[in-house]
Design goal:
335 residues, two-stranded antiparallel sheet, single chain, Spore Coat Polysaccharide Biosynthesis Protein SpsA, Chain A, nine-stranded mixed β-sheet, alpha/beta
């Protein structure tokens, strides 16, 4: 069995591949794979012509981020100890993959790991997706060191450490292959967004730890597939967040969380209407409608601890939105 596969998911990403593959090929030590979500552009021709050394998995349809990785990795199951899941719009740095895998090899209690993720457009600034390590508040809202809601911090070297976190960013994350497959990978029903947080939650419930290693830096463009401020992304985030919490919390705890989230998010929907952003209001309402429609088919996650102990949430914030919006706390050190 080989040590690691670096796996890039692609869907109509020819331009992203042209821009970012050079750094990945230059600085990576492990096998490179591209899982293609039935692209209709010239992505495959570009890879065949310019990167014949990169192995390909060609899927028959666009399964999204969640389904694409789950379907693709199933085809190389049993060949590698680790996967590094890397967005197609990420520039990497020298030695990045070896450092991450060496760390995982020395830490058998950890199932996932992410590096420091900075903005490709502004490399002294954290990226939205994962930044300096991801946490969850008591109501399942994600936040990061370096990013609280929409407030992004400059990188001042404060997060060059290694710490336990609640989730690793799907923009660049190492996963222990056996754990990924034992937990059935990402939830394909999510299609995109929140799937890595759900997987990390299931990992923690199964007794595995998640870490952030700030000694490695990568640079993420972000928004290459779906703009961060789009109604579609809001819809997916809200719908998938509800599914994730329902799956991983007790029924009584979910009910309490649902009441708070429903109040906040329906107030947000009303606010969008007053701002003339009816498409965002519709996204909120559609997300709640679709969650209710599929709720009875969502299975509660039952972990197989196999002698391990569930790893509790690392985040200490009760409601990050209240801290950010009402109390004006815009950086992690203010929480």
């Amino acid at each position: 069995m080989k040590s690691c596969a670096i796996v890039i998911l692609n869907y109509n990403g020819e331009e992203m591949l042209k821009t970012f593959l050079p750094s990945v090929c230059m600085h990576s030590q492990f096998d490179l794979w591209v899982v293609d979500n039935a692209s209709t552009d010239a992505s495959i021709d570009f890879l065949d012509t310019n990167y014949p050394q990169i192995q390909q998995i060609k899927l028959t349809e666009n399964f999204g981020y969640a389904g694409g990785y789950t379907e693709g990795l199933a085809q190389i199951q049993g060949q590698y100890d680790y996967y590094i899941l890397l967005n197609s719009d990420v520039e990497v740095s020298a030695g990045w993959d070896s450092v991450l895998i060496d760390w995982m090899e020395a830490q058998p209690d950890y199932a996932a790991l992410q590096p420091k993720i900075l903005s490709w457009k502004s490399k002294d600034t954290f990226d939205y997706a994962g930044a300096g390590g991801g946490f969850l508040d008591a109501y399942g809202y994600p936040y990061c060191r370096g990013r609280i809601w929409d407030s992004i911090e400059k990188d001042q070297g404060s997060y060059n450490d290694t710490i336990d976190v609640d989730w690793a960013s799907g923009a660049c994350m190492v996963v222990r292959a056996t754990v990924f497959h034992e937990l059935s990978g990402f939830d394909s029903d999510f299609f995109a967004h929140m799937e890595e947080i759900d997987l990390c939650w299931r990992m923690r419930k199964s007794g595995w730890k998640i870490a952030y290693n700030g000694s490695v830096e990568v640079y993420h463009l972000g928004g290459a597939t779906l703009d961060r401020a789009s109604p579609k992304k809001m819809y997916l985030n809200i719908r998938n967040s509800l599914s994730m919490i329902y799956k991983n919390e007790t029924s009584s705890r979910f009910f309490r969380i649902f009441l708070v989230k429903s109040l906040l998010e329906h107030l947000a929907a009303m606010s969008f209407v007053s701002q003339g952003k009816k498409e965002f209001s519709k996204a909120v309402l559609d997300a709640y409608r679709d969650f209710r429609l599929k709720k009875n088919s969502i299975e509660k996650f039952q972990p197989n601890l196999d002698g391990r102990i569930e790893v509790k949430r690392q985040g200490k914030v009760k409601l990050v939105f209240w801290n950010w919006k009402v109390l004006g706390k815009k950086s992690y050190d203010q929480l």
